[in-house]
Design a protein that fits this description.
The structure is a homodimer. By secondary structure, the first copy, chain A, is α/β, with parallel strands linked by helices. Chain A folds into two domains: about 130 residues, NAD(P)-binding Rossmann-like Domain (Rossmann fold, 3-Layer(aba) Sandwich), CATH 3.40.50.720; about 150 residues, Dihydrodipicolinate Reductase, domain 2 (2-Layer Sandwich). Chain A is built from nine helices and 15 strands. In chain A, strands 14-13-12-11-7-10-9-8-15 form a nine-stranded mixed β-sheet. In chain A, a hairpin with a 7-residue loop joins β8 and β9. The termini of chain A are far apart. The model of chain A has no long low-confidence stretch (mean pLDDT about 95). The interface between A and B is medium-sized, with 32 and 32 residues. Chains A, B: This is Gfo/Idh/MocA family oxidoreductase.
């Protein structure tokens, strides 16, 4: 199946292009970008022109930053294309609701992807937890924004979500593996004095769940989820890639997250179905709405 | 039908008690409050005791502040009672989703009320706009927090929503009368230096919709919505109570908002139905998530 990739930046080069190239389902038929392109692939600067000229391409995958993504998605849906959205699926919840309604009206597939849910340990963690009684969940997501988003000021702009850009990956895993819904009960957000979005967050949820997100972590990076149950303990390390149950390795393997997303998109298109789960974004919006605010040192890249 | 009223504060005395007293459908059978009571009505201090002892009361109406409301609602639902929620229906969206799911599971009615939708001009405004093409919508909601929430520090605490406490009334009307869904595209929020929630907000939505909320308005108070269409202009004044179409009075009348809510609740219980529309709260959460932040002068009552 032919796919057009829109937004040829870091995430496209690092993940989308290799995942499409390695897949038997997909052919990268066009790119749309102001400056980027992929060798041997038709490159458009003008999105409208691509949609108008390349009616042979039924699927559009959007990996540009969240702020402009809605307009691109709506155009694709209204042009009868199936759409795959990078996370987060919108800069607001209303955007997600609108896109879901428009895709249904147009009879096309919309897939709001959460790449971390495709990490190696996630499916077996979910299966193991399905019949357990959970007593405590601890999420620690600490990374260095300078390493992962070098110079990307958009992450601190309104709509960029700040530390929730990585933190929503943790929330996408937690909401996938836990057998019960959770809800935020308190939050403390740390805003750099010169920025509109937080650089750190401390979240308390119902059901013994808590999370610490921090973007100021130099040295070793930490993406861990620990779940304590009445029947043992589960640890997910490395952003869900490595599962440990009661101290014993239970699943691990090379990164296949984006391969998993494109395989799922192929299934959805074939089945004429959509997959739009806004739950991780609901928790982020709730954190902004309910959180108390602390102003911290200005941040510069 | 017997109803228990929980949280005997300003809104209960001003609105709920008279609306119940004037209704042919309802009997105020109990109150629950730390300090308040209503003459001639059984007064409980202990909510659990009321639920356990008064199994003859099938409906609980919650008018306490949003922060504790979820726990009270969940207890009532799990005790098999129908529940009526003051606005906002939760301090988070996850709370609303959880309550809706629990009510469905328990087979009881949940009514997330929006009293401003019952204002006199709202239903005729919705009917008039149904076939119009909207070009511009301007919302101006400016009131004096000292007059309407004297000394109520909870409105500035996390979960109290600040100026969105009245602003969500405007959003509940806008989302009711407009024939199309809208989505936030930008917001500026003004936080007093000593408070966790905004005292003013400037919102830009899709489809030509904008809103200004301000809680520092002394003198005349303003709760206006203007809708310009290709076939004329509609004005709602006084929080929806007074409708003007193309400059001519079209609907007005005394305040019957809470009477309308209790009449609707009676219908819902009889029909075995629920009415939980979180859309106004979605826009508030989106504003917190997408908004840029400006720090303004400290506020004291």
């Amino acid at each position: 199946m032919k796919v057009a990739l829109v937004g040829i930046g870091k995430i496209a080069r690092d993940q989308h292009v290799p995942a499409i190239a390695d897949s038997g389902d997909w052919e990268l038929a066009a790119t749309v970008s102001r400056s980027g392109s992929v060798t041997g692939v038709a490159a458009f600067h003008d999105y409208d022109a691509m949609l108008a000229e390349r009616t042979d391409i039924p699927v559009v995958s959007l990996c540009l930053p969240p702020q402009p993504r809605f307009d691109y998605a709506l155009k694709a849906i209204r042009a009868g294309r199936h759409v795959m959205l990078e996370k987060p699926p919108g800069q607001t919840l209303a955007e997600v609701h609108t896109l879901a309604a428009e895709a249904e009206k147009a009879g096309v597939t919309l897939f709001a992807t959460w790449h971390s849910r495709m990490a190696h340990g996630v499916a077996p963690a979910k299966a193991w937890l399905a019949d357990k009684t959970i007593t405590k969940v601890t999420v620690t997501w600490k990374e260095d924004v300078r390493r992962w988003h070098p110079g990307q000021d958009w992450v601190f702009e309104p709509g960029g979500m700040g530390v929730f850009d990585p933190g929503i990956n943790a929330l996408s895993i937690v909401t996938e593996i836990l057998p019960m819904p959770i809800r935020l009960t308190a939050a403390v957000l740390e805003f750099p004095a010169n920025r509109h979005t937080p650089i750190a967050a401390n979240l308390t949820f119902s059901d013994g769940v808590s999370a610490v997100f921090d973007w100021r972590q130099e040295g070793p990076q930490t993406w861990d989820i620990t779940v304590e149950t009445t029947a043992g303990r589960l640890d997910l390390h490395d952003g869900g890639a490595r599962l440990v149950i009661d101290g014993a390795p239970a699943a691990a393997g090379p990164d296949r997250e984006y391969a998993g997303l494109y395989a799922r998109m192929a299934e959805l298109v074939k089945a004429g179905a959509s997959d739009v789960d806004a739950t991780p974004l609901v928790h982020v919006a709730d954190a902004f709405m309910l959180g108390s605010r602390r102003t911290v040192l200005p941040f510069e890249f």
